[in-house]
């Protein structure tokens, strides 16, 4: 635990140095694509503080380089073939550097998968002086009871989501306020340590320094949910190629995250196997003709399945759009049912607002919002990431929600546990539902 704390602090210091230099790259390592964006940071808005406190600020930024490449060596959001992943990352980073006409040495990366688990922690102390100080914040974070999350796991995020001072709850920053008893609720996200180590080693082989790492589910939520949704409570469902990430936000903080190991690539695979066509052809058919809701006209519209096997009858087959939808819908329903199960386990039904936002490349399947509203709940909308300065038009769709979220995560970081001088000998799930306990009691 001590080693992890120091590692995260070292990465925060590297990120701070990169921001001060004015240029940093963000990398989205996905199962279907790898995207790299190079950011130029405007220091006039930065309010970075010293090493003993948070560096959360409001730095302005502009995208000056962007590139994407087909993902290789990445499966279920995790690296499983190091040489192929290295080549793909090098390709994306070099293309982005060429567009930006500048070299970058530090990258901030995000990834999905790695079996994330959420824990809700709580801590309480008595304030030493009348006013809450920086040291009191450190002490109350150290008082949080860390669960035994098992060997081979690492903490990826540890964010205070709520502070309470005496009888007043819902405080975002209690420093300087008068009170006697200070308590906090902390959301902690752990992931498989091997996945993080493989990513860091792969970037090292690419001659890049890792200046930060984030969960794809988290960064997608901060880019796709509008301010009111983050405040009142909402879930963001990121339907990617190899995985479907989900995150729940409340009071502008993530309070739960999880991953379903299915995505759009599985729908493509189903089409490929059912129609006996190559995966590239199946992806094209899914993009042009796919859907999940059949109409009477779909029986009449035919799709020609071209292939080059040499068998004339096999190469000149046709299927109807209705048949294609019949292949796609069961897999999409399975993904949404699994997402519903994860949301129920997290206590999503206790939120005062139960808005659900669908984003990610696979969310663009026609009719998905209607099907999702029947499985997940009535309040479902399709989300697109926020617009950021300099982002190419081709990178503004739902498939780039995590890339845009990484820009916000890099330039405007939220407070994390390692931003404070927590005593080394006092390092801080008991159940999933504790992640939402505080706002049920104090809303």
From TrEMBL:
GO biological process terms, semicolon-separated: FtsZ-dependent cytokinesis
UniProt KW keywords: Cell cycle, Cell division, Cell membrane, Membrane
Subcellular location: Cell membrane
Superkingdom per UniProt: Bacteria
Residues covered by the SHS2 domain: 24-224
Predominant location category: membrane
Topology with respect to the bilayer: Peripheral membrane protein
InterPro entries in the cross-refs: ATPase_NBD, Cell_div_FtsA, FtsA/MreB, SHS2_FtsA
GO cellular component, one term: cytoplasmic side of plasma membrane
Quaternary structure, from the entry: Self-interacts. Interacts with FtsZ.
Function: Cell division protein that is involved in the assembly of the Z ring. May serve as a membrane anchor for the Z ring.
Family indicated by similarity: Belongs to the FtsA/MreB family.
The protein's name in its UniProt record: Cell division protein FtsA
Gene: ftsA
């Amino acid at each position: 635990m001590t080693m992890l704390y120091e590692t995260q602090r070292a990465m925060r210091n590297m990120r701070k140095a990169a921001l001060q230099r004015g240029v940093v790259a963000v990398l989205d390592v996905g199962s279907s694509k790898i995207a790299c964006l190079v950011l130029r940071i405007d220091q006039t808005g930065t309010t970075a503080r010293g090493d003993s406190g948070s560096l959360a600020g409001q730095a302005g930024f502009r995208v000056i380089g962007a590139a994407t490449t087909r993902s290789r060596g990445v499966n279920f959001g995790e690296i499983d073939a190091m040489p192929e992943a290295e080549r793909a990352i090098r390709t994306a980073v070099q293309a982005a550097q060429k567009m930006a006409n500048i070299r970058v040495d530090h990258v901030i990366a995000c990834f999905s998968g790695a079996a994330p688990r959420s824990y809700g922690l709580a801590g309480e102390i008595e304030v030493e002086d009348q006013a809450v100080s920086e040291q009191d914040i450190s002490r109350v974070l150290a008082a949080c009871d860390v669960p035994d999350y098992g060997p081979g796991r690492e903490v990826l995020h540890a964010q205070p989501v709520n502070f309470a001072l005496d009888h007043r709850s819902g405080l975002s920053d209690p420093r300087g306020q008068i009170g006697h008893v200070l308590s906090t609720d902390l959301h902690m996200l752990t992931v498989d340590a091997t996945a993080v180590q493989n990513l860091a080693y792969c970037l090292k082989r690419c001659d890049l320094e890792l200046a930060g790492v984030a969960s794809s589910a988290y960064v997608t939520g901060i880019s796709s949910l509008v301010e009111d949704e983050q405040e009142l409570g909402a879930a963001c469902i990121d339907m990617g190629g190899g995985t479907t990430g989900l995150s729940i936000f409340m009071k502008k903080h993530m309070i739960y995250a999880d991953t379903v190991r299915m995505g759009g690539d599985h729908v493509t695979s189903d089409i490929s196997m059912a129609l006996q066509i190559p995966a590239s052809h199946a992806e094209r058919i899914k993009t042009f003709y796919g859907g999940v809701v059949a109409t009477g006209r779909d029986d009449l519209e035919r799709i020609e399945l071209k292939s080059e096997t040499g068998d004339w009858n096999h190469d000149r087959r046709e299927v109807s759009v209705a048949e294609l939808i019949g292949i796609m819908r069961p897999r999409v329903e399975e993904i949404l049912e699994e997402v519903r199960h994860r949301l129920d386990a997290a206590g999503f039904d206790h939120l005062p607002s139960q808005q659900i936002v669908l984003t990610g490349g696979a969310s663009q399947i026609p009719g998905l919002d209607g099907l999702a509203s029947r499985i997940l709940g009535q309040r479902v909308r399709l989300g697109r990431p926020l617009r950021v300065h300099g982002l190419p038009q081709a990178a503004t769709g739902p498939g780039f929600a995590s890339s845009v979220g990484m820009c916000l995560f890099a330039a405007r970081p939220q407070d994390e546990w390692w931003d404070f001088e927590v005593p080394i000998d006092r390092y801080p799930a008991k159940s999933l539902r504790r992640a939402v306990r505080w706002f049920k009691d104090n809303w």
